[in-house]
């Protein structure tokens, strides 16, 4: 039990995020979509280096979002924007146009980006107890 009489952190109800945090998550979602489009164009243009650059940009955004907000949702929001944009871009149009080719680089970009999204969301910090509650013995 904490000294404030609130009980365990796990027993506390979840509060909805503040409007500023919601705006940050929406901004990260849109930024994830932009990074996906840029990465899709770069990875096909300069194959080995472009693929690494696109995946490094995605990983930087996912991990940076988690660090900036201090929550796992900060990594999930840009990852969701990235994945939704990948799905939209992989759908072929009636004219036969598509953005992703059938080469190995495209599949590495798709699967590598999804793996990076999961890794960065896992590395993001979850809800942490207050500093006084974290110490078991004083």
Number of helices: 5
Low-confidence runs: none
Protein structure class:
mainly alpha
Gross morphology: elongated
Question: Distance N terminus to C terminus?
Answer: 14 Å
Mean pLDDT: 80
* Number of extended strands: 0
Percentage of residues in strands:
under 5%
Profile the largest sheet. none
Residue share in helices? 55-70%
The helix/strand order is HHHHH
Q: Radius of gyration over alpha carbons?
A: 19 Å
Summarize the structure.
With 138 residues, the protein is mainly α.
Overview of this structure, please?
This protein is mainly α.
Which features would summarize this protein structure in a list?
single chain, 138 residues, mainly alpha, 5 helices, 0% strand, elongated
Write the layout of secondary structure elements.
Layout: H1 19-45, H2 47-69, H3 73-90, H4 104-123, H5 131-134
């Amino acid at each position: 039990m904490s000294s404030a009489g609130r009980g365990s952190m796990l027993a506390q109800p979840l509060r909805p995020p503040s409007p500023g945090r919601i705006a940050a998550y929406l901004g990260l979602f849109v930024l994830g979509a932009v990074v996906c489009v840029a990465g899709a164009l770069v990875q096909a243009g300069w194959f080995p280096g472009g693929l690494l650059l696109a995946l490094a940009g995605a990983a930087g955004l996912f991990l940076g979002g988690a660090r900036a907000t201090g929550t796992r949702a900060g990594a999930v929001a840009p990852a969701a924007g990235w994945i939704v944009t990948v799905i939209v871009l992989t759908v072929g149009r009636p004219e036969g146009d598509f953005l992703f080719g059938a080469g190995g680089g495209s599949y590495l970009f798709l699967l590598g980006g999804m793996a990076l999204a999961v890794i960065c969301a896992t590395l993001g910090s979850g809800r942490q107890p207050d500093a006084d509650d974290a110490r078991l013995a004083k």
